[in-house]
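User: Just a sanity check before I run the rest of the batch. Below are the structure tokens for the first item. I only need the designed sequence back.
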């Protein structure tokens, strides 16, 4: 689900800018490989300090997980190699996102990137942004303008929310948003970033763009209204939080 939503988000961005390459399968396979691989690494290292229902499911379905991991690795390796061969200027972005993905779980000395105070959420956002949007920008020389900033705010705003259920398993030394500001303030900060997304997208968007943004604002408002009662639900955040990114991408596909 996370991989599918990331792929639709990236695809919608490509349609919004009328780009020739959608990167749909590249993003889908890459997200699936990284997302599954990081959790499988913890199982392999017997590091269950961040145990969750998803980790438990992976342990119970090890053969299926290994199959998905292998298929996604082969697909992503082929597609990324093809893109780097045809467009060498993307090599740096692949290298950065790859290092982040590896060092997020693999320790160098005492820490990995996830455990460095204040850094966790920003590493996730950076890797996600590079794969879904950054590659498009590099390929097509898209400038870093207010529209790109708005997408950064959207990704950051929704990613911050995942610190809330993680506060029960994250060491206090991680200094995540939920640990530093508390649950209520974390939800408020998240909502402010998402609001900034809509404000920036409405800028020079015209009457039609403003109307579309207003509809999506109501949809996401419903998500935040229900959030206080669902704040510790992994399913609610994963399904609806990631789903918002996928649906926004699908929206750009439908109106392009």
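Assistant: Here's the designed sequence for the first item:
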């Amino acid at each position: 689900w996370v991989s599918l939503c990331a792929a639709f988000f990236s695809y919608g961005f490509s349609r919004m800018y009328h780009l020739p390459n959608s990167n749909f399968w590249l993003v889908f396979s890459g997200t699936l490989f990284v997302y599954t691989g990081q959790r499988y690494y913890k199982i392999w290292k017997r590091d269950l300090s961040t145990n969750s229902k998803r980790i438990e499911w992976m342990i119970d379905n090890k053969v299926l997980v290994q199959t998905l991991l292998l298929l996604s690795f082969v697909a992503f390796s082929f597609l990324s190699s093809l893109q780097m061969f045809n467009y060498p200027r993307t090599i740096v972005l692949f290298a950065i996102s790859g290092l982040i993905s590896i060092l997020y779980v693999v320790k160098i000395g005492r820490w990995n990137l996830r455990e460095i105070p204040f850094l966790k959420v920003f590493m996730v956002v950076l890797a996600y942004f590079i794969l879904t949007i950054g590659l498009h920008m590099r390929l097509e020389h898209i400038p870093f303008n207010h529209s790109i900033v708005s997408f950064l705010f959207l990704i950051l705003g929704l990613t911050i929310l995942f610190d809330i259920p993680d506060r029960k398993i994250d060491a206090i030394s991680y200094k995540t948003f939920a640990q530093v500001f508390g649950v209520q303030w974390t939800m408020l900060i998240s909502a402010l970033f998402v609001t900034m997304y809509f404000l920036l997208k409405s800028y020079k968007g015209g009457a039609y763009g403003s109307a579309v943004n207003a509809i999506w604002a109501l949809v996401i408002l419903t998500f935040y209204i229900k959030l206080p009662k669902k704040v510790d639900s992994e399913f609610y955040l994963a399904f609806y939080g990631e789903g918002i990114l996928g649906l926004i991408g699908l929206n750009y596909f439908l109106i392009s």
